[in-house]
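Final report, results section. Input specification for complex C-07:
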Amino acid sequence: MNKQILLVEDEFYIRDLYKNILETAGFEVILAIDGEEGYNLAQNLPDLILLDIMIPKINGIMLLKKIKNDENTKNIPIVLLTNLGQESIIKEAFTDGASGYFLKVLLNPKEMINQIGRFLDNPNLKMDPNIIAFD
Amino acid sequence: MLHKTLQRQLIKLFGSSELIPTSLNPLLQIISDTYSHGDEDRSLIERSLEISSRELESSNKQLQSEQELIEKEVEKRTEELSAERNKLSLILSGIVDCVIAVDRERKIVLFNKAAENLTGYAINEALGKPLEQIIKVFDNATEISPNTYCPIRSDTFEGIIYSKEGVKVLASKEKQTFVNLLVGQITEGLTVNLGCILTLHDVNEEKQLDEMKLDFVAMAAHELRTPLTSIKGYMYIFLRDYKDVLNEKQSTILSRINISSKRLSSLVENLLNVTRIEKGRITLNIQPTDWVKNIEEVIIEIIDQAKDKKLQLNFIKPNQPIFVEVDKLRINEVLMNLLANAVNYTPPEGKIVIWVEKVDNQIITHIQDTGEGIPKEALPHLFTKFFRVSGILEQGSKGTGLGLYIAKSIVEVHNGKIWVQSELGKGSTFSFSLPLIQPKNE
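Structure output:
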């Protein structure tokens, strides 16, 4: 069975872009366009959640906290997929339980797929926050 | 003739002047003479008294006028003092900075208008109170003791005894302000019971402005990055799916769009870098890195651009592995900047050579090109912000003048050095050094 990835992203082009990349790599992709929809769809227990931060209704950091505090969904690995690079935000994300943090504009699709594969093999894996360049 | 007074007395005694016995005449004459002398004496005394009294009067008048002069002088001086005090008071209240002075028991003796505004305490609430009752000073979350920032010393030093920028001052009613704190003392402090004089310069606005600038940069970066993400992403997909069905011309067109979008992305990150550097916020993540492998990875990024210009790019690999401790992301920005410059400023069919050299504890990386070279007068300004040597090739990059400035900042923050050797018309060699990690088995 294919692994299911929930992608929470409000920008249409970006959503379609990553949907294409992930489906070509063999994943089943579920889409959410805001934080509320993201929380609801997380209840279906995808294998991994890719989460943008600047999304309507509930922002990505708040949604991250919500999902991690929910008994049902707290074990799903969550990777932030964003263009915000401030040190304080990155640090907070990892404190709140994010497994990884990708800066979209610098993201190499091959690397992304490899890293996702690693998270799926080991849901407890955490990226080293220090390898991200802070703004 | 007998003295009038005597005559009167004789008439009273004898009744009339005919009844005065003539035998008394010599005696009466003597008495009359005595009376006359008395008159003269009295007259003299009277004259003396008159003179004295006139003199007294004149002295009095003089004293009076002198007193009036003195009073006028006192009045004038009092007015001047009053005006001085008013002036000082006005000046103090006109001083934008908060001024607080304390005596040698650290009780407040001076508290200007700005202090009232900053602390929320009125002057009569503050005067006489211990300093720590009115303000508390914090450096981030740690409180600074009054003994530290307002020490009461017994020396005659005159000048600043404590200074700290960006401290937080907590006063009444939760009033919180960021200030630059300057504390001084004067020589006469011991004699006039003056302890410290504190000046608090409000930097709240500056702090807020800094916050705003950071917010703006973050928002701008985010906004610019979003369409860039799309461009790069869809280019990736397009080439992945259609590379094989493209003819050479179409491939070249797409390749150039790809290269341009990468360059655009690099520019955006460069702009962000400058802000990071300005704020001293380059946080380095230092990891041991295989330097040779790293150079090869960066070459892969630039090789297409080089091939496009028919440039030969050679990396002379050393036969030993080399390890350095670097922030890979940042040091690669340096390599990319230098390689991009080499590609941009070298005419087609030119050559770019990269090699490394071990010198003492350093590894020096050289990037040599057969490009147009750099004029001598440009060399001292080369690594400064916004400086560009205008290229003579029409294909030359327009550049922001930031690349070398950023490269220098990053190399130096790694404790390395960067320099260039160049000859106009022949080419340039850019070199930078990095400290080596000695391998454990050496």
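The first strand of chain A starts at residue 4 and ends at 8. The mean pLDDT of chain A is 91. This concludes the modelling results for the funded period.
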